[in-house]
TrEMBL record:
One of its GO terms (biological process) is action potential. The keyword rRNA processing does not apply. The keyword Phosphoprotein does not apply. Pfam families: Ion_trans_2. PANTHER family: POTASSIUM VOLTAGE-GATED CHANNEL PROTEIN SHAB (PTHR11537:SF254), VOLTAGE-GATED POTASSIUM CHANNEL (PTHR11537). It comes from the Bacteria. InterPro entries: K_chnl_dom, VG_K_chnl, Volt_channel_dom_sf. This is Voltage-gated potassium channel. The chain crosses the membrane at residues 24-42, 54-74, 86-107, 138-161, 173-191, 198-219. GO terms for molecular function: voltage-gated potassium channel activity. It is found in: Membrane. GO terms for cellular component: voltage-gated potassium channel complex. Keywords: Ion channel, Ion transport, Membrane, Transmembrane, Transmembrane helix, Transport.
């Protein structure tokens, strides 16, 4: 009975809608951010005993988080099929095994992105922060681009810092990633071999696509969140009178509306 109660408590924290559950998810995001900052900061050090001890400490917590989410998963097989689950497993191994180093710990950011896209957290963010409600699409597009930039920077660093004298830390890897994404290509830093060229190709193709998506969201007319009573279409033009999908009259409340 005690185990069942514990399991229900864990499920409520991860999937519930209570204030305690939402606070817990905020703390998870804060922990993920701290983990990411550690990965970046560690790249500028000599990876001494203190850094390895802190990496092990973070790895234990990540492992506990992974075990908790596995325990409450309704379908264990489906949970193990998620790319973010395997990214977490690789990140955990990267932190726990000293020989692996923390270079692959950047994959933790993928779980943070998935957490930000969960229904419960999105509802809470809309309720807690007016700025998020008014700029949700822009923030979402910026988050996707930022995560892609960070992940590709991490891949460049993890695959190059031992073999490429031009990549000594995350700043060097970030510099190369940004120049590749913007197709500037100064040429002062290059990734040798076929694998290096393929990484550059992925950065250019997918990075430019995400960048254009962000630009599209920034410059197109702002949409208003108002569910259509007939078809449920959520986003409408700010001055819309009828739903573009089904033609139903929509009464969108704006400033000055009584």
């Amino acid at each position: 009975m005690a185990d069942k109660t514990t399991l229900e408590l864990v499920r409520e924290l991860y999937e519930g809608t209570s204030d305690r559950a939402n606070t817990f998810r905020y703390w998870l995001i804060a922990f993920d951010v701290a983990t990411i900052l550690f990965v970046i900061g560690a790249s500028f050090t000599d990876h001494g005993p203190m850094v390895q001890a802190l990496a092990l400490f973070l790895g234990v917590f990540i492992c506990a988080d992974l075990a908790a989410r596995f325990a409450i998963a309704w379908s264990k097989v489906r949970f193990l099929s998620y790319p973010t689950t395997w990214a977490d497993i690789v990140a955990t191994v990267s932190f726990v095994l000293p020989l692996a180093g923390e270079g692959l710990g950047f994959l933790r950011v993928l779980r943070t992105l998935r957490l930000l896209h969960t229904y419960q957290l999105l509802v809470r963010l809309r309720g807690d922060f007016r700025f998020f409600r008014e700029n949700e699409q822009v923030l979402g597009a910026a988050a996707n681009l930022g995560v892609f930039l960070f992940v590709m920077t991490g891949i460049v660093y993890a695959t190059q810092y031992r073999i490429n004298p031009d990549i000594g830390n995350y700043a060097d890897a970030l510099y190369f990633t940004v120049t590749a994404l913007t197709t500037t290509g100064f040429g002062d830093i290059t990734l040798p071999g076929t694998s290096g060229r393929m990484i550059a190709v992925v950065i250019m193709i997918f990075g430019v696509t995400l960048f254009l998506r962000l630009a599209q969201v920034l410059f197109r007319p702002t949409k208003v969140r108002h569910p259509c009573p007939t078809c449920g279409l959520l986003l409408h033009d700010a001055d819309a009178i009828h739903c573009k999908h089904c033609g139903t009259t929509v009464n969108i409340k704006t400033e000055g509306t009584v």
